[in-house]
Structure to design on (153 residues):
């Protein structure tokens, strides 16, 4: 039996990000942005001394990481062929840029999942708590979920 708790950072907290899908054949190849929403599921087999999976109050530094990474940022994929031109926007002072492995809801969900796992370890949760999934939403109609479990083919 496992216990699951969730933490949601809604569209209203202002994770306003701009990015592009440089490989897309659609209008997604252009710079565009969203106020992203993030939902994290935490999982534990045993509850802590407070009978919690995780103390939601302890997540302030994790929220800070989300804000530092996504709030009012231009996210650029490492393999974007226009990377150097886009990075120049930081040099001239018109964009706060974060270089990421890839862009889009799926890629952001994976990035947040991996960082949440590190955050749990670094903040004393050891192996008792794990991240079950991360969902990233562009808006009410589009989202992606990363579970980290992988597909066995």
């Amino acid at each position: 039996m496992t216990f699951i708790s969730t933490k949601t950072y809604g569209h209203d907290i202002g994770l306003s990000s701009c990015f592009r899908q440089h490989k897309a054949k659609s209008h997604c190849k252009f710079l565009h942005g969203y106020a992203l929403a993030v939902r994290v599921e935490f999982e534990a087999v045993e509850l802590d001394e407070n009978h919690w999976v995780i103390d939601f109050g302890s997540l302030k530094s994790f929220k800070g990481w989300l804000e530092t990474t996504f709030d009012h940022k231009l996210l650029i994929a490492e393999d974007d062929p226009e990377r150097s031109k886009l990075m120049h926007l930081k040099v001239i002072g018109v964009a706060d840029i974060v270089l990421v492995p890839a862009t889009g809801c799926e890629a952001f969900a994976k990035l947040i999942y991996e960082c949440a796992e590190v955050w749990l370890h670094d903040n004393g949760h050891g192996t008792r708590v794990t991240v079950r999934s991360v969902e990233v939403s562009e808006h009410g109609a589009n989202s992606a979920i990363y579970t980290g479990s992988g597909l066995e083919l």
